[in-house]
Design a protein that fits this description.
alpha+beta
Length: about 150
């Protein structure tokens, strides 16, 4: 695929998840919650998890922010369901590396590869990774909001 076509496809996926975010609601019975805040642009999200043992059974989010941060949170909630805490943290590492360097780890990132191009826009990196910091905070039982600063 040509890079332009790939960029266009990625933009379509991001716009789709921005306009129609998946799992965009508070989660009844959530037993973990992580909050993320980006003071630079005002993105503010809460990620809710329903854990059974070490496994994420359900994941949702609420809040507001730019299109990239909302799409990232939407794709995050669809990506972490059914994964163990360790698997989610390993995925965080891959996504964080991909968003900051553009390196796509073929295995395990799936649709999240749409954020590989974000590294070209340093001001947007924090938008794309915000909800990921929030989900790690939720997994770790952090009660304080995490900030991108």
């Amino acid at each position: 695929m040509m890079t332009d076509e790939l960029d266009e496809l990625y933009q379509e996926v991001i716009l789709d998840h921005c306009k129609s975010p998946r799992n965009f609601h508070a989660l009844e019975g959530a037993n973990r919650k992580g909050e993320g805040y980006n003071p630079i642009c005002g993105d503010n999200y809460t990620v809710y998890l329903k854990m059974e043992g070490d496994v994420v059974k359900e994941a949702t989010f609420q809040g507001s922010g730019c299109c990239i941060s909302k799409a990232s949170a939407s794709l995050l909630t669809t990506s972490v369901k059914g994964k163990t805490k360790a698997e989610v943290k390993a995925l965080f590492d891959k996504v964080h590396d991909m968003i900051t360097t553009g390196n796509v780890h073929e295995e395990g990132v799936g649709k999240l590869a749409v954020f590989a191009g974000v590294h070209k826009f340093p001001a947007r990196v924090k938008c794309a990774i915000l909800s990921w910091h929030a989900v790690v905070a939720a997994l770790d039982g952090e009660s304080q909001p995490v900030s991108t600063e």
